[in-house]
TrEMBL record:
UniProt GO MF annotations: metal ion binding; signaling receptor activity
Gene Ontology cellular-component terms listed: membrane
Chief location bin: membrane
Name of the protein in question: Heptahelical transmembrane protein 4-like
Source species: Dioscorea cayennensis subsp. rotundata (White Guinea yam)
Membrane topology: Multi-pass membrane protein
A Pfam family annotated for this UniProt entry: HlyIII
Coiled-coil residue spans: none
Amino acid sequence: MEKTSFFITERDNKKCCSSSCKEIKIKKKRRSPSKEANKYDLVDYASLPTFLKHNEFILSYYRSEWPIKQTILSVFSIHNETLNIWTHLVGFFIFLVLTNYVINSSPMINTTTTSSLTHQVILHNNLQIIHSNDSQVSQTSLHVNQTTTMIKNQETSEPTTRWPFYAYMCGAMFCLLMSSACHLLSCHSEHTCYLMLRLDYAGISGLIVTSFYPLVYYSFTCHPFIRNVYLTAITVFGIATIIVSLFPVFETPEYRSMRAGLFVCMALSGLVPIMHKLMAFGDRPEAVVTAGYEMIMGAFYALGVIVYAARVPERWMPGRFDLAGHSHQLFHVLVIAGAYTHYLAGLVYLRWREIEGC
Ligand SMILES: [Zn+2]
C-alpha cells in the first residue's frame, strides 16, 4: 500500500530539497572507507535521501539506493520494509487461493441436481411439513420456497454472471502485489520510487473501483440501467484518479492532500449504492448481511487510514518499532482484513443471485 507519506514535513524539504544536497551526502559517504567496504549496510534515517524520508519515527534499518539485484534479494533479509513486503505478499497468495476455491466451487449451489430429483426433494419436504409442528412448518416452508425458486432459476435462466466477483478478486490481488513490489523496490532509486508509487496508486484505485462491482452488479441485477450508471460512474472516477496521480505536479506537497482526498471520496461514494440497496431491498436478508459486511470493511479501512496518518505506535517510542509493529504494517493487516470482509460479502451476493436470479 502507499508508502509515500502525505505528511513529509517542511523541515525535511528544507533540509534536502536539491540535487546538490544529495551530492554532499554521496561525498560524505565516500570519505568513509568503512562505509565503502559495507556498501549494502542498512542505514539510519538521517543518512537517507529525501525521496526515502517518509517517517522520522522509524530511525534505522533502512536500505538506501542499493543496486537492483541487492534490492530484489532483500525480500529475504531483515530491514524495516521486510514485514511491509511480506504482509501484502502473503495477502496476495491468500486471495489467489480464495479465487481458486470459488472457481472450483462454481456455482456456489450445486446445479447438477436433476429436475426429477429436486422434485422428489420438494415432495419429501412437503411430507415433513405435514408431520411437523407449527414452528418447523414455517422453517421448512422457507427452505422449500428457496429450493423451488432455485430450481426454477436453474431450469429457466442462464448461470449467474461471475465477472464482477472475479474482477474484485483481481483488483485485490493487483493492489496487494503492487504494494508489495513498491515496498521492495522503491529504495533502489528516485526514478524507481516514482514509478512504483504510480503503480501503487493504480493498485489502490483498482481495489476501490472493483470493490464496487459485486455490490452494484448483484444488488441491481434486475435493474440494468441503474446498475450501468453506477458501474460507469465508479469506473470513470477510478480512471480519472489514476490519470491525476500520473502528473508529476500532483507529487508536490500542496497536491498530496488533494490526491489523498480523491481516494477517500472514491471510497466514500460507495455509501450511495449501499444506501440505495438497503432502501430497495431492505426486506432481503442478503441485502442486510452484505451491508453489514460492507460496514465492517469500511471500519477496517478507516482504522487503517487513521493508524497510517497518526503514525502510531512508533510516534510514542521512536526507534522501538523499526522492524516490527510500526503503523504501516498495522495498516497493511487492516487492509487485508477489509478486503477479506468484502470477499465474504461477495460470496453472499453470489448465493443471492444463484438462488433468486432475476
Ligand atoms: Zn504499504
